[in-house]
Sequence to fold (240 residues):
Amino acid sequence: MASTASADRVSEDSVPRVTPGVFFGEAVALPRGPQALPRADVLAQQRERLMAAMTELIAAGGYPRVTIGALAGRARVSRTAFYACFADKEECAFAAYDRFIESLLAAVAARASKATDMAGVIGVMLDGYFSTLERDLVATRAFLVEFDALGPGARERRRTALRGIAAYLRRMHGEFRATDPTLAPLFADEVYLGIVYIARQLACDALDEHQRPALRAIAATLAPWLARVYRPGSHPTRER
Fold:
């Protein structure tokens, strides 16, 4: 009969890893002795490992089940090293979420900056959002499905992030309408926010219903409909 320790090891090893290079960097071995890295570099690497490990554990079992011991063990750092990087597990989880959002927004903005019209903005923003999420389903599951369990602070971070995307979408609409009067007048702020929430909720539902959802397919469905919303006669709500 397997020991409890062995069973825990099997369970830990079965937890999926994040995809390196999407939201978190690939873990590297930390040299010792004369080749040791400066302390600041060591701490940076340990923070990266801990944020990735936190993301994986949240995705696998939810935040309440994450312990400092499991987190340090998965990241291959000591408890002392953990507390040198973070005050507690909540701070680690928030740091991981902030990285997730920062990387996601950067990917979306990088694509949108190359668009030449509003339809292009909509298409590349949707594809950038859903394709980036699809590239690392572990992180996506952690922060779209499980993260709200951290409480009010987590939900406030989520609202701030979504409002940021909505504000960017509104700004792009204003910039393109300045040179293209055939576009609909600017909408009420709640309309842009509603568009962002629709995209997020569809991603959440797909993650709940499928182990490996085809998230980019959602973008392909939404883009033509949203492009029509920005043309006169097809927009549901105008700014007053």
In short: The chain has a mean pLDDT of 88. The two ends are 70 Å apart (CA to CA). The CA atoms of residues 34 and 128 lie 43 Å apart.
